[in-house]
Every structure is written in C-alpha cells, then in structure tokens.
Specification:
Elements (H helix, E strand, L loop, with lengths): L46 H4 L16 H14 L5 E6 L6 E6 L2 E7 L7 H13 L2 H13 L1 H4 L18 H13 L6 E4 L18 E2 L1 E4 L4 E4 L10 H16 L14 E2 L3 H8 L2 H7 L5 H18 L1
This protein binds zinc ion.
Zinc ion (ZN) binds next to α7.
Length: about 300
C-alpha cells in the first residue's frame, strides 16, 4: 500500500465544519480492523441497475442500509477510538462524504453509504482518519471516494414514478387482464400514464396538432407509456385496451433491428392506418388482429381522432 503524494486528498470531500479530533490518537493496532462488512449484507439502489424496479419519489432517494452493516462499521470506528462513545450515521449526501464532530464527549460520524462495502484497507483508513486525522489514511480514503464516483453521480435518468391509476381508466387493471387473456401472464413490461405535455408548442399557433402518439414502448426501461388524453370519460375502455395491447405487443415482439429506442408507434393521424403498416412487421399486425375488439377500436379511432387531437 504505497501511498504516494500524488494521491488525491480527501479534503475536497469533507464537510466544511468537520472537526478532526486528534485527542483520541492511540496506539491502536491496525491489524484489529479486519473486514466484517460484506457487499452481500447491504442493499443500496444503484443508479444503473435499479432501472425501474425501484421506484421512489425523486425528492427522497431511498437508502436501504442494512443495520448490521452500519453497526459493523460503527464497531470499526469504536475500535479506533478507545474509551470514546461513537455514533455512526449512514448518509446519501453527495456533498459531504464524511463528517464528524464531538459533542459532549461523543464522536458523531456521518459517512456516505459507499463505505459500507468498502475494502478492508479502506475501512481501516477511514477509521484512522476519523479517529486521528491520519494524513496517509486521508489520501487512501480520498482515492476510494474518487474511484466510487459513479455512486455520487446524480440519479439521472431518475427513476420514473409510475402512475397507472387514472381518473377514469386503470392501466394496471387493463394490463393485467390483457396479460392473462393474450399473453398467458408472460408480458413483463411496466406501464404508466405519460405525463401531460405542456401546450406551449401548440399555443399561439393557428395550426392544430396533426398527430398524437397514443402509446409508446421503451425497450430499455420495459416501459409502456399511454397518452393521458385517453384518460377521459368519453374514451371507451376497449379503446384504451387496444392501445395498451398494441404496446404490449411491442414488448413481446422484439423489433427486427434490435432497436432500444422507444418505438414511435400507434400514430393516430389522418394517415394513421398507413403509418401503422409501415412501422410494424407482418407478425405484429397479424397478432394485433387477435385483439377481440380490433375492428371496433380502429373504427372508434377514425371517428374520434379529431377530438383526441383537440383534447391533447
Ligand atoms: Zn406500434
């Protein structure tokens, strides 16, 4: 463990008022700080892997800390501060990775969750740093923080809150029924109402919207989005079903080109029928006709496309 002087210092990551208590310096044997925190002991939602499986309000990122892992790390700190009570809090604070202060003789340490599954030598260095302000330890810890940069990245794209229950139509109920009836429960896509689009682009223009995307399917997220204009009392359930069914087919029938982009399908427009034929392979169109109210749905769309466009 050759700590060179060029190693990044931890200083940049510290909380502004972090105080280093040097009084606790002692002849602590480093060998006592052995690893007992394992990666398997914690469950922390990661930016990339979570996709949409973990959905939480954007303002309050969920931090699932296994209490055992926290206590294990707290014991490491206590071992480095003999005779002094230590309270460890785990945070998700990107701006203050490590902070600690002593209040009424108690060392309060707050560290980012990245340290819960850090390698033993990093945990050891963290304890030495917090206990004694050890400079070499600070460099090692700083290096680890730099290497863990991805965990500090902002959660973008953010987990999308899925809203399936509309005012008039419940997408999840529709999805589940269709899944049983047509796919033997084998469709594992997610579904949500799309967000209401702002009208800025349309307002102030004499021309009305000409097309509307009633549904879309994003392969990467396995997510079906249904246009909120369909959540109206005058839109019959079978039509919403039809749009949902169509997008479920996109999940079940991979595109020939293996595109991971959202399919821009289901274009309802004056040329909607033509667009449909161009954008979908024969197998897709064949299976789409299995929808029991297929003709009725297309007919309803023809008669109401104007109203849909105006309402969107
Ligand atoms: Zn489509």
């Amino acid at each position: 463990m050759a700590a060179k002087n060029v190693l990044p210092s931890i200083d940049a990551w510290l909380a502004p008022r972090a105080s280093v208590n040097r009084s606790a310096a002692s002849g602590l044997g480093r060998g006592r700080l052995s690893p007992i925190v394992t990666a398997a002991a914690i469950r922390i939602p990661e930016r990339v892997s979570s996709q949409l499986a973990l959905v939480f309000p954007t303002q309050s990122p969920a931090l699932f800390v296994h209490e055992g892992a926290r206590q294990a790390l707290e014991r490491r700190l206590k071992a480095a501060c003999p005779g002094r009570p230590v309270i460890l809090s785990i945070t998700d604070n990107r701006h203050s990775i490590i902070s600690h202060s002593t209040r009424h003789g108690v060392l309060h340490a707050r560290v980012h969750h990245m340290f819960l599954d850090a390698p033993p030598r990093v945990v050891e260095a963290l304890a030495r740093y917090v206990a004694r302000g050890d400079r070499k330890a600070s460099m090692l810890v700083g290096q680890y923080i730099d290497a863990s940069g991805s965990r500090l990245a902002r959660r973008r794209p953010r987990a999308i809150p899925l809203v399936a229950k509309g005012k008039h139509h419940d997408l999840l109920a529709i999805f589940s029924e269709l899944n049983e009836r047509y796919f033997d429960g084998g469709c594992h896509a997610l579904i949500t109402w799309g967000r209401k689009a702002g009208r800025k682009a349309v307002e102030g223009k004499a021309t009305a919207r000409k097309t509307i995307k009633l549904g879309s399917y994003a392969h990467l997220e396995r997510l079906i989005r249904i246009h909120p204009v369909l959540d109206k009392p005058w839109v019959p359930r079978y039509f919403v079903e039809y749009v949902v069914y169509h997008e479920m087919l996109h999940h079940m029938i991979p595109t020939a080109r293996g595109s991971v982009r959202a399919s821009t399908s289901n274009l309802a427009s004056a040329k909607g029928q033509l667009a449909r034929r161009v954008l979908h392979p024969p197998e897709f169109l064949e299976r789409e006709r299995h929808f029991r109210k297929y003709e009725r749905a297309l007919d309803w769309e023809r008669r109401h496309i104007g109203r849909l466009l105006r309402a969107s």
